[in-house]
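Ticket #4471: structure output looks truncated?

Reporter: J.K.
Steps to reproduce: submitted the chain below (280 residues) through the standard prediction queue, then opened the result file.
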Amino acid sequence: MKEFFSRHGIWILLVAVIVTVTMAVLSTFGAGAAAPVQNAVGIVSAPFRAAISATANWIDGRIRFAGDYDALKEENAALKERIAKLEEENRQAKADSAENERLRQLLNLRPQQRSFSYETAMVVDHTRSNWTRTLTLNKGSSMGIEPKDCVINAEGYLVGVVSEVGANWSTVLTTVDTDFEIGATVFRSGEAAIAAGDFNLMPEGMLRLNFVSADSVLLNGDLITTSGLGGYYPAGLVVGSVEEVVTDDSGAMDYALLSPAADFDELTEVFVITDFTIVS
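Returned output as attached by the reporter:
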């Protein structure tokens, strides 16, 4: 044993010193302190852990942003649809209000004809040639329109008479068309006559007042209205006014030229009288 310690004692002492120093160094870290190797690994991996955490947070933020963006897009689309619907309702309300106002004006013009039933229609075509002058409307039999219904404008002036009807369209002979004819009355005197289109006058936008009594006196500007005789047409609708009185060779009155009250070229909307009460 002595020989062993004499030979190896220095090495044993060196190992003991190293162990003692190591234990002293480790004791300085205190309880809960990381081991040197673990600490070194932690130092090296810390930036990577921070980068991974930041990346995860960024991805999570993007996912939440995408979800919020899609929700905002859907909400924005719904709001746009709602706004468009409200704008359409507002336009329709304005159109209905304007139509109601025109109807009120018509009723005020003819208070004795309050039983009139009107169907509003839009003029979709104007036909003008050497032998005809008609209008095409966007309403027909499905809306109660029938042949011989009178058609007036917003002022209550006679535009013409329905001549042909389809399910969703109708044709109107204007008062200057060669096939137009209606019982008429001289408003000032109450004399009966016939207002009719004329082939020669149609290019000038005029019509004739025929079968006027030989002893009647017509004045330029005399108002001519519908007579309502026979019950086919309502009475009191303004047809036009006397423009000129034409005499025959003997000097007696032959017929009168009438200027229509309605301006056909400007018509975009008309009112079809689908029903009325005859006023005696």
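Triage note (M.O.): checked the attachment and the full token line is present. The domain at 117-275 is CATH 2.40.10.350 (Thrombin, subunit H).
Status: closed, working as intended.
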